[in-house]
Amino acid sequence: MSYRGRFAPSPTGPLHFGSLAAALASYADARSAQGKWLLRIEDVDLPRTRAGAADRIRYDLERFGFDWDGEILRQSARTDAYHAALDALRERGLAYRCTCTRRDLASAPRNADGEVVYPGRCRIDPARAAARGGRAAWRAIVPAQAVSFVDRRFGALAQDLASEVGDFIVRRSDGWFAYQLAVVVDDAAQGITDVVRGADLLSSTPRQVHLQHSLDLSTPRYLHIPVALDRRGAKLSKHLGAHPLSDDAVTALVDAWRFLGQPEFPGQPASVGEFWAFALSNWRTERLPLQHAQPAPGSESPPPTRRTPCAQTP
Fold first, then answer.
1. How far apart are CA 77 and CA 219, in angstroms?
2. Based on the domain organization, do 301 and 234 belong to the same domain?
3. Would 186 be classed as within a structural domain?
4. Is pLDDT of 43 > 50?
5. pLDDT attached to residue 301
6. Residue 123: pLDDT above 80?
7. pTM, to two decimals
8. How sure is the predictor about 238, in pLDDT bands with cuts at 50, 70 and 90?
9. Which of 135, 211, 279, 282 could, after both became Cys, cross-link 173 (CB 3.0–4.6 A)?
10. What's the pLDDT score for residue 129?
11. What is the rounded average pLDDT of the residues 24-29?
């Protein structure tokens, strides 16, 4: 099957250096394989969307020389597809209604990422959920065995969803669909064969693989790159006020290229076009750093010590 990759930013603010590194890695991986590269705006969570952010993202991508194939897909126009996927899970007995509140789960165990490991209360006692009435979330039932996948850089990985995550939310109690369901449905609809993204999403991958299996969807290949950290050692993110991309596109692209451990340029590129001419001929996945996180250029904070969210398999 021909390579089909994608870049899927959330319009909650302008792109920053971490966004650029992810876009560069996914674009270089796709184009060096003579593949397609699609742009998706992940605005499934409309309350967090900022006015004008999607237009700014598109402008910055064009300014940095990214050229996507086809129309831009927006998750806000895909609600019917997510409803259909949830209906399919329900019909197969793989999802259930949950009325648990944060207070209900205050004493529940948490995993290494600080997420609540859902104890299955509303699955074990559905009458309790029905008796409460009112708004409810929908959770996907996780399997009793570990879910495994192969990352192109980190190798074979597996996670026991039952003990490390529990049944997870696919539609929130406020009616908005969760990222985990939306991304799986959209990757399938767009025929995505390869997903390249930040290693902060490694722990989400087994959930997505499980949903793909549950919905009879194909599983793309995965490649996770290091997350960029700020001076405090925190992940660069829009909601933490990460600086927007520099006006100097060439320097920013070169910084992102070096951040990804790629071969050195023979000299400073004179233009964005010259950068891409070299980059697409010299992209090497085997040179990607094996860290899950590392400082962005100009940051002196070391990456925090953290457990790999998925265990390596023999």
1. 23
2. yes
3. no
4. yes
5. 46
6. yes
7. 0.92
8. low
9. 135
10. 72
11. 98
Cα distances (Å, whole numbers) of residue 19 to 7, 8, 195, 261, 308: 9, 10, 15, 16, 22
- Catalytic annotation on 238? yes
What tokens appear for 269 in the block? 């590129």
The answer to whether position 184 is within a domain reads no
Same structural domain for residues 57 and 109?
no
Q: How many CB atoms lie within 10 A of CB 31?
A: 20
Q: How far apart are CA 263 and CA 117, in angstroms?
A: 42
What average pLDDT is seen over the chain? 92
* Residue 51: both structure tokens together: 């006015």
Query: Poorest-confidence range of 9-23, 120-134, 173-187, 193-207?
Result: 120-134
Q: 107 and 71 in one domain?
A: no
Which CATH number do you get for residue 256? 3.40.50.620
β-pairing, 194-198 vs 155-159, is unpaired
- Its domain, for residue 93, covers 79-179
- Are 291 and 249 part of one and the same domain? yes
Query: Which residue among 238, 254, 279, 309 is the active-site one?
Result: 238
Enter the tokens of residue 189: 């609809």
Cα 216 to Cα 169, 183, 185, distances in angstroms: 19, 15, 11
The distance from CA 104 to its chain's CA centroid, rounded to whole angstroms, is 28
Q: What is the CA radius of gyration of the chain?
A: 20
- pLDDT band at residue 32 under the 50/70/90 scheme: very high
Tokens of 15: 């792109």
Residues 59 and 88 in one domain: no
The number of residues making up the chain comes to 314
What is the phi/psi pair of residue 212, to 5°? -60, -45
Determine contact, residues 128/280, Cβ cutoff 8 Å: no
Query: Residue 221 in 3-state DSSP?
Result: strand
Q: What's the confidence (pLDDT) of residue 302?
A: 47
Q: Is 299 exposed, middle or buried (0-12, 13-18, 19+ CB in 10 A)?
A: middle
HEC profile of 46-98:
HHHCCCCHHHHHHHHHHHCCCCCCCCCEEHHHCHHHHHHHHHHHHHCCCEEEE
